[in-house]
Specification:
There is one protein chain. By secondary structure, the chain is of the alpha/beta class. It folds into two domains: 173 residues, 3-Layer(aba) Sandwich (Rossmann fold), CATH 3.40.50; 106 residues, Rossmann fold, CATH 3.40.50. The protein has eight helices and ten strands. The strands form two sheets. The protein has a six-stranded mixed β-sheet, sandwiched between helices. Strands 5-4-3-6 form a four-stranded parallel β-sheet, with helices on both faces. Helix 2 links the parallel strand 3 and strand 4. Helix 1 packs across helix 5, helix 2 runs parallel beside helix 3 and helix 7 crosses helix 8. The protein is globular.
């Protein structure tokens, strides 16, 4: 008989060691297995708990962030929620810059955890390069005014260590048998951390990066507006490593959302839009690789973060 783990001393001790689920109903015939890591089981409901903790603790260790010192960041949503959780637990005041495309559920979550939140208005109601750059500029002004430590997620390689742990968990949970890993690109840190770790164990693991079809800059196409929150900055992000990946795949916002609704209806898995994009590519990869193979992806966050958007809200299914 297995025994449950002992009580956590802090909410931060609950980050990681998330379950791995095999999809049973969506996987086509003659395809390999598709396994999805339920990062929604992290305490704030997303994989970004790992990166937030890694960035804050690295800055605390080397003195960039003193005890009780303030923190500032720009965010497409889940990173802000995760930073709000970590900073509240550690006693750091937090200033966040986000936008009105980000779901109201995420913005409310940030505020509930004590963050001071600045919301910028979008021009199109969608995520695009100009909006990302305005958020960065606003965060820089707050940093200059307050002297806060700026985690600066698009340039901060400290996050990679948090995702290396995720890669080790996947390697152990699959009994050291992974043929492919697919992942959406936001900062690029998760693909580098997880993918790099898997490649250290097995150099033949196939790695596929995913980006919004409407803003396929990694594929050499123009940037454009989309609604896959947390990914697709609209420009090639500094942590992107093209030499690491075997392929770059694109998924449209509508297709990602359609897959989310299928996940809920057919697998009882409630997830956000980037997860829909991940599963779309994972299923295609498993079909291409065939029986006897294992493709892994991440459930980046929970659908609870999107109840106020067109993904699951009253306008669900509308373009």
């Amino acid at each position: 008989m297995s025994h449950p783990p002992p009580p956590c001393a802090s909410i931060l001790d609950a980050i990681g060691n998330t379950p791995l689920l095999e999809l049973r109903h969506l996987v086509p015939r003659n395809a390999g297995r598709v396994l999805i890591k339920l990062e929604s089981a992290n305490p704030s409901g997303s994989m970004k708990d790992r990166m937030a903790l890694a960035m804050i603790e690295a800055a605390e260790r080397d003195g960039r962030l003193p005890a009780g010192g303030p923190v500032v960041e720009y965010t497409g949503g889940s990173t802000g929620v995760s930073l709000a959780q970590v900073c509240r637990a550690k006693g750091h005041p937090l200033f966040l810059v986000t936008n009105d495309v980000v779901s109201p559920d995420k913005r409310g979550h940030m505020r509930a955890l004590g963050a001071t939140v600045t919301v910028l208005e979008s021009s199109s109601g969608k995520l695009e390069e100009s909006l990302t750059r305005r958020m960065i500029d606003a965060a820089a002004r707050i940093q200059a005014d307050t002297g806060a430590y700026w985690t600066d997620q698009l340039n901060n390689a400290d996050q990679i260590g948090g995702y290396e742990t995720l890669g080790e968990e996947l390697w152990t949970q699959t009994n050291e048998a992974i043929d492919a890993f697919v992942q959406c690109v936001g900062t690029g840190g998760s693909l580098r951390g997880v993918g790099g770790t898997l490649r250290e164990h097995d150099a033949t693991v196939r790695l596929t990066a995913i980006e919004p079809a409407e803003s396929a800059v990694l594929s050499g196409r123009p940037s454009g507006p989309h609604q896959i929150e947390g990914v697709g900055a609209g420009f090639v992000v500094p942590l992107w490593d093209p030499d690491l990946v075997d392929a770059v795949a694109t998924v449209s916002t509508d297709d990602a959302m359609a897959m989310c609704r299928r996940l809920a209806a057919e697998e009882a898995l409630f997830a956000g839009t980037s997860t829909g994009a991940n599963v779309t590519v994972a299923l295609a990869t498993a079909l291409r690789l065939g029986p006897g193979t294992t493709t892994v992806c991440l459930a980046c966050d929970t659908g609870m973060k999107y109840l106020g958007t067109r993904l699951y809200g009253p306008a669900a299914g509308a373009s």
